[in-house]
Automatic annotation (TrEMBL):
Residues 200-398 form the Histidine kinase domain. Gene3D superfamilies: 1.20.5.1930, Histidine kinase-like ATPase, C-terminal domain (3.30.565.10). It comes from the Bacteria. It is an enzyme of class 2 (transferase). Keywords: ATP-binding, Kinase, Membrane, Nucleotide-binding, Phosphoprotein, Transferase, Transmembrane, Transmembrane helix, Two-component regulatory system. InterPro entries: DUF7134, HATPase_C_sf, HATPase_dom, His_kinase_dom, Sensor_HK_TwoCompSys, Sig_transdc_His_kin_sub3_dim/P. The lineage of its organism: Bacteria, Bacillati, Actinomycetota, Actinomycetes, Kitasatosporales. GO terms for cellular component: membrane. Its EC number is 2.7.13.3. One of its GO terms (molecular function) is protein dimerization activity. It catalyses: ATP + protein L-histidine = ADP + protein N-phospho-L-histidine. It holds the Pfam family HATPase_c. This is histidine kinase. The chain crosses the membrane at residues 12-30, 42-59, 66-83, 134-153.
Amino acid sequence: MQRLYDFLRRHPTWVDSGWAVFLFGISVAAVTVQQEAERADAPVLSVPVALLLSLVVALRRRMPERMLLLALALGLAQLVLNVETMPADFAMLVITYTVAATGARWASRLALGVGLCAAPLAQLRWPENESSPLGTVAIMIFTSVPFALAWVLGDSIRTRRAYFAQLEERATRLEKEREAQAKVAVAAERARIARELHDVVAHNVSVMVVQADGAAYVLDAAPDQAKKALETISSTGRQALAEMRRLLGVLRTGEHQESGEYVPQPDVDQIDELIQQCRTSGLPVDFKVEGTPRPLPSGVELTAYRIVQEALTNTRKHGGPNAGASVRLVYFDDGLGLLVEDDGKGAPHELYEEGGVDGQGHGLIGMRERVGMVGGTLDAGPRPGGGFRISALLPLKPVH
């Protein structure tokens, strides 16, 4: 049964053709009875008209506008040639509904107007002999109601279909927007992980390279210093591995794990440990905190730490062997200020202007992205007296 229903849904013209044959058969039977009761020449014109009206029903969904015009022409022919109404005229109701539901707007309006005029014209052309004028008007109104109802039903179906189509379009659009937002979120997360990896690898590897060079230089003359440098390389490597495990844990689970093998994200309190590490690696750093320390949002904590980390890494890489640095952390009423300066030879011009070295300058690019994400400002460039200077202002909101 379901297969038959699906087949009929896929072939609606076949269904309409079946109803058309049924309607034509009834019309021929009615005309035959009329012939026997009234006049013999009635079937001569009635049968072709009934056949064409049945064709209107059969093809109403394939070409609704053309079938409406054909029905209109047949109705006029009935009036002019005196072919009285018959069961096949039911096709006019059917085509009125069809064009109201699926046809063009002009065809829908035409069908409504013609339908409202068809019944009065038929009553005037073939009046009831025993009906009074008031009764004739009542019959006109009563016979016009089916055309009005057919049009209203068809127009309601059109409106409903348009509403569902709009809902489907909206659902499709929302789905595409969700996919786009998901892609943006994935890209943002990848960029964040890339910044984290850059900061972790660039800082720790630079420390390890400096210590390894120093150990190789004093290996024969001062074995104790070489051993200390190797210990620093070992501890720095372990720290780098721990932070990279944390990042891999974020990639696997989507969450920061603060227990087990993963360590929490660095914060402002760990800047002092970072500076001690730099001092141990041979970079003199002066560190001062001004203002009253207070709790910071986690994003600001991580941003401040990474800015200091990247700035000191650049000093080691580009400042020269005798460079020194200073770090100022200033708590304002509405923000956190960072100032990192060095007295070295300074970074290459393309590093902070065009991103041409150091992996295409991802260090300073990452800084600007981090600061932008928390709504802060960053200024980086050479100092007038030599060296390099990085200053940042991060908005500060109390943590409740």
